[in-house]
Amino acid sequence: MKRVIKSWRTVSIGIKKAANGWQFWLSAVGATLFFIFLFNLLSSGNNFLQLLINLPFGDKFFVIGQVYWEFLTNFLSIEKILIFLAAAGQGLIISMIVFLWRTRRRLDDTAVLESASASLIALIGAGCPVCGGTILLPVLMSLFGASAMTFLQSFSLLLMAAALAPIIFAIRRLGFLSSMQPKAKSRKESNAES
Amino acid sequence: MQNLDIGRIVRWSLAIVAIGLVVALFVWNAVTPQTAKSVETWQPEMTFGSPQAVNHFIEYVDMMCPYCAKFYLALHDSFDDFQRDFIDTDKIYYELRLVDIVSEHSQNSYRGNIAGYCAARQPDKFWGFYETMQNYLTDNYYSKGIGDKKGAPEIPKWDNQVFYDQAEQSDLNMDEFRDCFDTQQPKDTLATNTRKAQISMQTNSISGVPYFIFNDYTSSGFEGNYSTIQRMFKAGGVN
């Protein structure tokens, strides 16, 4: 237990180090907003997605606004909280990947993979509150027949929760790496070194 | 140096893909040509407007589906506008198709749908009953976070008396309703319509209700308000 606390203390030091700059917050907020949009776009069945595709240019902005509005107005539900946690986790990961890339000039492949798999799991889990189905329905129906419907709703929520696992692993890995880095180098400094 | 190049390639590739996706999304179908289609009406009692209207808006619903209730309430809240702009002008013929899609999730779904078909057997009584049911569900459950979304507590199994009460409140002939409901008279119609709906849903890769077909526009699920519904009409080619 002590080891776990100690390791997360190191991770938090890494995160603090990475967060010491406006670029970190810009990319974190931007990525979080993007993922909130992405996960919620599919969480209303495919209606918002179809509207986004089929409507003329100006109306697409209405749909984008509506996606965020629905997220805010339904925020106090398990599903939306899980979506927020997954999106904020992704925002943090992407910002830390950018921080490490700026300081080490290297992408952490494992963290990128973990982040991508978390997005995929969350996307599958997020779709979708139509009555009687989710994105997974066609797949599960072909495997389990009609009985797939009975466990589908809880299964999609579990998937959303499961998406948080790779996110936590990625944050832990990136936090460790960040804790070993000096502060972010400027582009000039980095170019001068290489 | 090699790492730097890979980083650059990845960064630029991601940026190009992201920009490409955004541009494609905004340009694709920017002007959507939609064609009005002549479609058979399943239950004339569950329609609104003139069958001669140019466009046929079809909504597949289950009586116990909360997202179907959201659509109904959003439409109902601005019903005068809807009537004035789309029904009175014969732009839209609205048809509701009651199907048994969520009975695996809700213990009341099958009986709720049977009750809906029983109400439709009495002239001009279906919409009143549908409204009473949706208001009852919203006031007693959905507004309290019960059965309204994924992960919410389930609505308990109702006694048949709940359906009788709603029917009575909707001014239905109770002898006729009880006779129809207790003997499940519309069960074959419900089964046939559900099967037809499932085939249509499979064809259009739709996984649940509410499921909408409006000319060339098909979608499922609903969140939003009357403005969202207006956009759905627009996506189907009607302003």
List the main descriptive attributes of the protein structure presented here.
heterodimer; A: 194 residues; mainly alpha; 10 helices; 2% strand; globular; B: 239 residues; alpha+beta; Glutaredoxin; 2 domains; 5-stranded mixed beta sheet; 9 helices; 10% strand
Distance between the termini of chain A: 42 Å
How big is the Rg of chain B?
A: 22 Å
State the helicity of chain B in percent bands: 40-55%
Q: Strand arrangement, largest sheet of chain B?
A: 1-3-2-4-5
Largest sheet of chain A: none
Q: What proportion of the residues of chain A form beta strands (DSSP E)? A: under 5%
Structure in words:
Chain A has one domain. Helices cover 79% and strands 2% of the residues of chain A. The termini of chain A are far apart. Chain A has 194 residues and is an all-alpha fold. Chain B has 239 residues and is an alpha+beta fold. Chain B folds into 2 domains: 1-30; 44-235, Glutaredoxin (3-Layer(aba) Sandwich), CATH 3.40.30. Chain B is 50% helix and 10% strand. Chain B has helices at residues 2-27, 66-77, 79-87, 109-120, 126-140, 160-169, 174-182, 187-203, 226-235, and strands at residues 47-48, 55-61, 92-98, 211-214, 217-220. A 5-stranded mixed beta sheet of chain B has the order 1-3-2-4-5, with helices on both faces. The longest helix of chain B is centred in the N-terminal third of the chain and has 26 residues, at 2-27. The chains are: A mainly alpha (194), B alpha+beta (239). Chains A and B meet through β1, α3, α4, α5 and α8 of A and α1, α2, β5 and α9 of B.
